[in-house]
């Protein structure tokens, strides 16, 4: 009986930890097309075991909406161009 209780408790703890880690995957919906000039910050998060692909989170600033964060689809051509542009821009020390 004690072994069954311990096994159930261990299973419950494992399920709780798995659901807590699932919160880290922020990119359930991909963001819109963006203008490079509005980019404030770009973060590339590695692929977690519970996420399908790596997360590319961009922080934008516009006069109308202020600061917003969006997830970008890493397979889209626009995102690939943004990553290349951002790396060159950062290397120039801006």
TrEMBL record:
Name of the protein described by the UniProt record: Chemokine interleukin-8-like domain-containing protein
Any GO molecular function: chemokine activity
Keywords linked to the UniProt accession: Cytokine, Signal
InterPro entries recorded: Chemokine_IL8-like_dom, Interleukin_8-like_sf
Domain Chemokine interleukin-8-like: 24-86
Pfam families (UniProt xref): IL8
Alphabetical GO biological process terms: immune response
Signal peptide, first to last residue: 1-22
Record's GO cellular component terms: extracellular space
Superkingdom as given in the UniProt entry: Eukaryota
């Amino acid at each position: 009986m004690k072994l069954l209780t311990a096994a159930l408790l261990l299973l419950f703890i494992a399920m709780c930890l798995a659901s807590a880690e699932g919160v880290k995957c922020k990119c359930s919906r991909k963001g819109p097309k963006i203008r490079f000039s509005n980019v404030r910050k770009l973060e590339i998060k590695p692929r977690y075991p519970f996420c399908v692909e790596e997360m590319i989170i961009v922080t934008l600033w516009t006069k109308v909406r202020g600061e917003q964060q969006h997830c970008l689809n890493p397979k889209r051509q626009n995102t690939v161009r943004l990553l290349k542009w951002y790396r060159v821009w950062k290397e120039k020390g801006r």
